[in-house]
Every structure is written in C-alpha cells, then in structure tokens.
Design brief:
Number of domains: 2
Structural class: alpha+beta
Strand order of the largest sheet: 2-3-4-5-7-8
Largest sheet: 6 strands, antiparallel
Distance between the termini: 78 Å
CATH class of the largest domain: Mainly Alpha
Mean pLDDT: 81
Low-confidence stretches: 1-30
Radius of gyration: 41 Å
Order of helices and strands: HEHHEEEEHHEHHEEHHEE
CATH superfamily of the largest domain: Outer membrane efflux proteins (OEP)
CATH topology of the largest domain: Outer membrane efflux proteins (OEP)
Length: 498
C-alpha cells in the first residue's frame, strides 16, 4: 500500500514537472548561439547599456578637453548691425551754447571684424580689429556719412593678479587622461559583471545537468532496490528511502530548470540581446597558467590606473587654490592699451584711407583699505585644504598599494583552490562510479550510495564555483592593474571620441 502511494505521488510529480518544462522551454524558432567566456565579455562591452554609458561619458570628456584646448586658439568674430532705426527727442547742446530738446530720426549700420587671442603665460588678451559704420539722417538733406577704423590693436593685461591659464594647462590634460583611463577601467568592470552573469547561467546549467543525472541515477537505483526487495536482501525502509530519493531528485530537477530560465533572462538582459536570440554559455575547466607577482602588479597599477593621475590632479588643484587665494587679496592693476586709425567721410571710397591716429592707455587700480581679515582667512583656508589634500592623497596611495597586493593574493588563493577543486571533482566522480557497482552487487546500503551521490554533486558544484572564483579574481586583477598577465601587455581600448 505504501509502495503504491509512493508510485502514484511520483507519477503526479513527473506530470507536473513536464508541464512546467514545456511552459518555460525556449521557443523552437529562437536563434541559439554557443559563446565562450571571452566572447560573452566582448559582447557585453559592445552591446550592454553599461558599455554605452561608459562610451558616452568618455565622449563628453573628450569634447570637454577639446573645448579647453580650443580656448587658447585665436578667435575670429564678426559683429554687425544692419540697420538700426532710431526716432527720438534728445537733449542737445546748440552751437550758441544753449541746450534744447531736438527731435532726431536716423538709421545706423555697422560691421566689425575682430581677432582675439588669449595669452596663457601672462593671462592677458590681445585683439586686432577693423570697423565700418554708416549714419543716415532722415530729417536733413545731408548725405550719409561714414566712420571707419581700418585697423585697431588692443591689449588687456591684469597685473599682480591670479592667472588661471597656466594651472588649466596642467590640470585639464590630467583630467582628460584620468577620464580615458576610467573608461578602460569601466570596460574591465563590465567584463567582470559579464563574467558574473555568465557563471550564474553556467552554474544553473550545470546544476540542471546534475539534476538530470541524479534523476537517471536514482531511477536506476530504485529499479535495483525493488529487485533486491523482492529477493528479500534489503528492508522495506531501504526501499522507501530509495523511492524518496527519487522523488527529491525530480523536485530538484524542476527547481533547477526554473532557476536556469531566470538566470538566462538576466543574462540576456545584461548583454542587450534582441528578442528571440538565445545564447548558451560554454566553458572549459582548463584554465591558463597565469603567474602573478606583487611588484609587477604594483608597477602596472602605478603606471596605468586612473587613480594615480587623479592623485596628481588633486595635488595640483589644491596648490592652485592656494595661489588663487594669495593673489586674490583685492589688490590688483589692469592695463588697457589701444592704438588704431580712424576716418570720418561722406564718401565710401575714402573710408579706408589713412585717417587720424587713435590712442588709449588706461591703468585701473583696485586696492581695499579694510576687509576685516577676509583675504587672510581665505588664504589660510586654502592652505589648510591643501595640507588636508596632501595627507589624504598620501593615505590613499598607501591604501591603493594595499588593495593591489590583496588582489594578487586573492587571485593566488583562487588559483590554488581551482586546482584542488578539480582534483576533488575527479575523485568524487570515480568514487560514485565504484559505489554504484558495489550497490548493484549488494555490498553497500542505499544510504551509502546516496552519500556517494551527494558528495559527487557537491564536488562538482565546488569545481564550478572555484572556476568562477578563478576568473572573477583574475578579471578583478586586470581591472585594478590594467595589465593582461597572460599576454604581459597593458590593457587599452580604441578611442571613442568624436
């Protein structure tokens, strides 16, 4: 009676599992591709939303750097008013010395072409221009008149004040180089995330294969157990234990199938695969013999990582702030100088003939008498922030070296774990095969064979998990050093600017 109940329950479970598998199985029309781990990483770095965001951030920094470089190049500007109409009543001085309100109606037009250039070394600006204006009076019969400045040269030069341009020339290239290296690091982070998702699917895929194998094994063992029970060589309890193990294996098969489908959905979503395109991970348990040492890892990290550039940039910015605070004490001189030629004539053909010289020199002075110590406070605040930044950078450098060293040690541990797990997997598989033969000969009990099966499955899962740990640790090491320890070359990606 108990055996009949167990068989009926097993049949119901099998029917339910079959319905679930049919519901979640991929459509036959879906296009399926088998990809290795390097192929999956390349696909994620090309299609994933994280890769798209990383490329856009790098493009933004590229154009920001382009703007910075272009700010020191000459600029050519055209200003024009064609025309401007005016009708008003203005207060004017008459020739006899009296003042009166006089209605005015006129149109004015003008064009000005100028070239400007910033002088980075001194912080000044020089301009070169040419200008032509026309005036038409509507209330008089006089003809149009022209005013021309064929050539004018101007200079604006601050004296004894803060000049930001030399600091920009130091900081902006570092900022762009830092963003370029950050882009490489982001692509390596995408590789790590893709590997995580890859091994999630692989583990679920491997677990499903183990579940199928366990179902087949328990079915075979159940057949043997029933034969031995009929012969009276095992007890009823052992037979029921074997039937229970068979049902548990079938339930594990159902859970494994559902888990695999969920992992696949996440995997496809991360890779940005279109609807209907299926990707099946394929992996080999053979791993390269990667030799890593701490000195090489530290050298590579110091040479290629964005953090090193960021440390230098932070120090320069702190020193710039101190220089700005010291120079911005409120005392300063600004020199304005100009020279040009001007000509006024009623004939357009005469406007560019040599006219009178026009000269202007102005020196502006600004000096506070009393600021209640604000300038001194700003200077001391900037100096305090500089010292804090220097201390923070020094501490961050030490933490950075320690982090790189720990990544090297973690990779070595994962490499050794991988070797041990591979050996344990082989031993557990051979032990299970030997235990199966002994169970068929009646030399061991059902508990013994179930223990061997559990140990085999456990060793296999450990092997897959060790493989995951090996590759994740290696990809983390690549990201933190930007160095490929297989090819012994630095890691870089093609520029995406423009």
């Amino acid at each position: 009676m108990v055996v009949g109940f167990q068989a009926g329950a097993r049949l119901r479970v099998l029917v339910w599992v079959g319905l679930v598998l049919a519901a979640v199985a991929p459509r036959a029309s879906a296009e399926t591709a088998t990809l290795s781990l390097p192929q999956v990483i390349a696909l994620a770095q090309e299609r994933s939303s994280s890769a798209t965001a990383a490329r856009n951030r790098y493009r933004a920094s590229y154009w920001q750097n382009h703007v910075q470089e272009a700010s020191f190049l000459p600029t050519l500007t055209l200003h024009g008013t064609v025309p401007e109409f005016t009708r008003t009543i203005s207060k004017l001085s008459l020739p006899d010395g009296r003042e009166a309100f006089v209605p005015q109606s006129f149109a004015s037009s003008g064009l000005q072409l100028s070239i400007g250039k910033t002088i980075a070394r001194t912080g000044g600006e020089v301009t070169l221009g040419s200008e032509l204006q026309r005036l038409d009076l509507f209330d008089h019969s006089s003809p149009a008149s022209y005013l021309s400045r064929p050539l004018s040269v101007g200079l604006r030069q601050p004296l004894f004040s803060f000049n930001p341009y030399p600091w920009q020339n130091q900081i902006e290239p570092l900022r762009f180089e830092q963003s370029r290296r950050e882009y490489v690091e982001e692509m390596e982070s995408i590789a790590t995330s893709a590997a995580q998702s890859f091994f999630d699917v692989l583990a679920a895929q491997d677990q499903l294969a183990l579940a199928h194998e366990s179902c087949a094994s328990t079915e075979t063992l159940l057949t043997v157990a029933r034969t031995r029970r009929a012969a009276g060589t095992i007890t009823e309890d052992e037979l029921l234990q074997t039937e229970l193990a068979t049902l548990n294996a079938q339930l594990d098969l159902q859970r494994s199938e559902l888990d695999l489908q969920a992992r696949r959905y996440q995997f496809h979503s991360y890779l940005g695969l279109p609807e209907g395109e299926e990707v099946v991970p394929q992996v080999t348990f053979d791993v390269p013999d990667i030799q890593v040492d701490v000195p090489t890892a530290l050298w590579s990290a110091h040479t290629y990582r964005s953090d090193m550039v960021g440390f230098d940039r932070r120090v320069i910015e702190a020193r710039r702030d101190v220089a700005e605070a010291r120079a911005s004490s409120g005392r300063g001189l600004t020199l304005y100088a100009g020279y040009g030629l001007s000509q006024s004539t009623p004939e357009l053909s005469e406007v560019f003939r040599r006219g009178g010289e026009q000269q202007q020199v102005t020196v502006g002075v600004e000096m506070p008498i009393l600021d209640w110590g604000r300038s001194e406070a700003r200077r001391r605040l900037a100096e305090s922030n500089r010292d804090l930044t220097l201390e923070s950078v020094q501490r961050s450098r030490a933490d950075f070296d320690q982090d790189v060293t720990m990544k090297v040690l973690q990779f070595k541990v994962q490499r050794d774990r991988m070797n041990l797990a591979a050996t344990a997997d082989q031993i557990a598989q051979r032990r299970f095969e030997a235990a199966t033969q002994r169970f068929k000969r009646g030399e061991i009990t059902a508990s013994d064979i179930q223990l061997a099966l559990s140990e085999k499955d456990y060793a296999r899962r450990n092997h897959v998990d060790a493989l995951r740990g090996f590759w994740i640790a290696y990809l983390d090491l690549r990201r933190i050093t930007l160095f490929d320890f297989v090819t012994r070359r630095p890691i870089d990606y093609p520029a995406v600017g423009g």
